[in-house]
């Protein structure tokens, strides 16, 4: 069971006092890795010997906080506790009503199907930095320069960056999920219906799908000034109507980024290699790059092998 599964399971059992304790720990973690029981009691305004002990024991048993007993007894949020705070904020804001099935658990995110209060399907993405090594995270993401930043804080930055990117490219009609809301390390998007491109054994008219992908890459680059920077068959969703959605934008960069052309070239090659390997479609990356960057208007770069 993932940490998000834990949060979804226990959320409805939490009481006002539980959320108060979680919020106090969250706030104090900006200054301390572990928060003392005395601090939690003082800022939550709960009785130390009775209420605070009860709440901390309860939250620990539910799997929402960690406890240490070294120089002092201290507590810190884990991802499940952080998830519960984010879920609570979304419920209070009238964004989220109920969770459905898990849509996917990856190295850096958990995604769930959900409903808003109107009964409309939405997608809830919990960012999960820390499942890969810290060195990899710092190398791949330019917003993790603070060495002391916790995984929770880094995940929040990832969510903020992705939500900003989604709003920008969605405005320019790039095929992405509709950005709805963002809080802490969570991004709320429009429904994601379909499967990763990598999961399809066969695709009808793969050349049409490939052209649509690069058309969206071009639109993001020319109109929004954004490069995905991590594009592959694992973050392109093929919907039941055979149109695409491009997801996972926290690593995106602008056209002005010093490595912009290198990253754009890598995106193009990743997609081109997949279609050549799986669907026997040969493209010349240089010709695609000319199309994507606006140097050429032609789409004659597609050649069946």
Please give the structural blueprint:
Elements: H1 3-10, H2 16-28, E1 35-36, H3 37-44, H4 48-61, E2 65-69, E3 73-77, H5 79-92, E4 98-105, E5 109-115, E6 121-127, H6 134-140, H7 151-171, E7 179-183, E8 186-190, E9 195-196, H8 206-224, E10 226-227, E11 236-238, E12 244-246, E13 253-254, H9 260-279, E14 281-283, H10 285-292, E15 302-304
Antiparallel strand pairs: 1-3, 2-3, 4-5, 5-6, 6-8, 7-8, 9-11, 10-13, 11-12, 14-15
Helix pairs in contact: 1-5, 2-3, 2-4, 2-5, 3-4, 9-10
Short description:
The chain has about 300 residues and is an alpha+beta fold.
Question: What does this 3D model show about the protein?
Answer:
- The chain is 43% helix and 20% strand.
- Strand 7 and strand 8 form a beta hairpin.
- A 5-stranded antiparallel β-sheet has the order 4-5-6-8-7, with helices on both faces. It has a 3-stranded antiparallel β-sheet with strand order 1-3-2. A 3-stranded antiparallel β-sheet has the order 9-11-12, covered by helices on one side.
- It has 3 domains: 3-81, Arc Repressor Mutant, subunit A (Orthogonal Bundle); 93-190, Phosphorylase Kinase, domain 1 (2-Layer Sandwich), CATH 3.30.200; 195-304, Transferase(Phosphotransferase) domain 1 (Transferase(Phosphotransferase), domain 1, Orthogonal Bundle), CATH 1.10.510.10.
- The model is unreliable at 131-139 and 143-149 (pLDDT under 50).
- With 305 residues, it is an alpha+beta fold.
- Helix 3 packs across helix 4.
């Amino acid at each position: 069971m993932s940490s998000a599964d834990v949060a979804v399971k226990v959320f409805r059992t939490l009481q006002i006092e539980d959320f108060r304790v979680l919020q106090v720990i969250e706030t104090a973690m900006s200054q301390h890795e572990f928060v003392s029981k005395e601090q939690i009691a003082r800022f939550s305004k709960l009785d130390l010997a009775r209420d605070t002990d009860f709440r901390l024991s309860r939250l620990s048993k539910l799997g929402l906080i960690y406890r240490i007993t070294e120089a002092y007894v201290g507590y810190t949020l884990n991802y499940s506790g952080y998830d519960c705070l984010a879920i609570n904020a979304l419920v209070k804001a009238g964004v989220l009503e109920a969770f459905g099935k898990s849509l996917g658990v990856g190295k850096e995110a958990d995604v769930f199907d959900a409903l808003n209060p109107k009964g409309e399907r939405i997608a809830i993405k919990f960012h999960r930095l820390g499942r890969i090594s810290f060195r990899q995270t710092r190398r791949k993401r330019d917003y993790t320069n603070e060495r002391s930043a916790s995984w929770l804080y880094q995940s929040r930055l990832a969510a903020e960056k992705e939500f900003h990117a989604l709003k920008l490219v969605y405005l320019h009609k790039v095929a992405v999920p509709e950005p709805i809301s963002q809080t802490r390390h969570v991004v709320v998007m429009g429904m994601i219906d379909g499967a990763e491109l990598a999961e399809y054994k066969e695709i009808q008219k793969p050349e049409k799908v490939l052209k649509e992908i690069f058309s969206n890459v071009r639109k993001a680059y020319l109109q929004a000034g954004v490069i995905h920077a991590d594009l592959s068959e694992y973050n392109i969703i093929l919907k039941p109507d055979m149109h695409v959605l491009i997801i996972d934008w926290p690593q995106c960069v602008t056209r002005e980024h010093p490595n912009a052309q290198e990253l754009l070239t890598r995106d193009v090659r990743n997609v081109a290699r997949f279609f050549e390997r799986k669907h026997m479609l040969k493209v010349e990356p240089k010709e695609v790059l000319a199309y994507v960057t606006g140097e050429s208007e032609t789409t004659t770069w597609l050649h069946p092998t």
